[in-house]
Amino acid sequence: MSISIAKNVIHDAFDEEIVVVNLTTGSYYSLTGLACKVWKAICDGASKDSLLEMFRSIASNENVETFLALLAHEGLVIVDGEILSPINAEELSCVLDSTPFQATLEKHTDAEELLLIDPIHEVDAGGWPRSA
Amino acid sequence: MNQVTTAAQYFSALGDAWNRATQVWCPELQCFMQFGDIIVRLRFSDTLLYEAYLPALDRARMPEAMKSWDAEICIMRNMPGSELPTPRWSSGDHIPRGEVPSLSDGNIRSAYNIQTSVLSSYCNNSRVGFHCVRDFNRLKQYEFGAPLRDIISWILQDHGAQLVHGAAVGYASGGVLLAGRGGSGKSTTATSCLGQGLKYLADDYCLLHKVNGTWWVGAVYDSIKLCSHDAVNNPILEHYESSYSQETGKNLFFIQRDIERYTCNGFPLKAIVLPKLNLGTTAYSHCISASKSIAIQALAPSTLFQLPCSRAKSFHLMSSVVKEVPAFELILGSDRARVSASIVELLDRL
């Protein structure tokens, strides 16, 4: 089954790190070490099975799957053909802390408040929108 | 008034409203701005907006009328006889960063600020934009400090440049871009350099563009926005009048003719500097190397999420800058006089 980068995500590599920005949520991430390698493999078109094989000597299947689940929960990747159950991201991070993925993914949410998403609930008499 | 249904139809209707505004109210006022290499004609349908917006754009203003320009912005108010056309707002429309998907297509970009009731719309093909103020009394301090920001951002991006959220100081031979999230100390750092040898270029937004293969930083606005505490303690600004906003807690200054000697309009970019408040006891401000990853995280998010722009294109440009220009953290000590000296020392090293 295939994994791809979500369309609302932009990313680039800077030396040994990858910075990923979720344009929908306003969160941005820094990936290092093993997380960086997995991300690059996904960008190169690796499937879930090939990722498990690729990192078998470094991390267990469960570790890799948990990391992929975290990426999917954060809206950064799409897993084709499989709907991942919503998982509490904080709990996932705690689980990752005891794995080779420890400290390889940093999430920043300070820009989220800049992302003004204001659904129009009503319009005024002139037909212009106003916030609820 | 009939509602229009497509972005192109609405843009055309804005053009009709503009024509009515200049016929009904007063002869059009116009001036020309230069942002980097890009010349923009500004056309105003009345004097109120002309007088309100020009102070912040004075440095970019060209002394003479031009015969050709790269883009133009028509600035108008909602007035009797020249009412703005009512767009078709869909219940449940989302407006991320103020962008209005229903008024945008591949050629036209539109954004509506619900707090200030300002509509901005720009057509890539015709290179014409409309900045429409529905209610002048609802304009906020930032509209006067950084007027026409959305359309200027789109115009710059169309011409390979980028408006970024950042401050800048330096010399004509080279300077630094101060980057970081809101409250990180960019404005305070930039304004503390006034009168300390370094030239001030910007405190909030500046222009990034490439000139003959080298990244340059350019000035866009003549305004300085500073919290009251920093303003009264600034030896240059404390003598000048400003307008205070209770909403933002900041004082808005306009660079005046007699402090022009402390400013410059552009320079080659030598480094990206990330101000960092030092919560320890060190009084000594100094610069240390920073990774490119930290630099892009400081520069990109606030630009991407404050400005309605093509995000992938903006991120790509900022990534290129970060990869080509060294980055440093400026550890801010308690000795304000050292802040400027630290940047001077850094520029001397580069």
Provide a descriptive summary of the structure in words.
- The complex is a heterodimer of chains A (132) and B (350).
- With 132 residues, chain A is of the alpha+beta class.
- Chain A has a single domain, classed as Outer Surface Protein A, domain 3 (Alpha-Beta Complex), CATH 3.90.930.60.
- Helix content of chain A is 30%, strand content 23%.
- Chain A has four helices and eight strands, in the order ββββαααβαβββ.
- In chain A, the strands form three sheets. Chain A has a four-stranded antiparallel sheet. A two-stranded antiparallel sheet of chain A has the order 1-5. Chain A has a two-stranded antiparallel ribbon with strand order 7-8.
- Chain A is elongated and about 65 Å long.
- The termini of chain A are far apart.
- The mean pLDDT of chain B is 90.
- In chain B, 28% of the residues lie in helices and 30% in strands.
- In chain B, α7 runs antiparallel to α8.
- In chain B, 50% of the residues are buried.
- By secondary structure, chain B is of the alpha+beta class.
- Chain B has nine helices and 18 strands.
- Chain B folds into two domains: 152 residues, no CATH class; 188 residues, Rossmann fold.
- In chain B, a hairpin with a 4-residue loop joins β4 and β5.
- At the A-B interface, β2, β3, β7 and β8 of A face α7 and α8 of B.
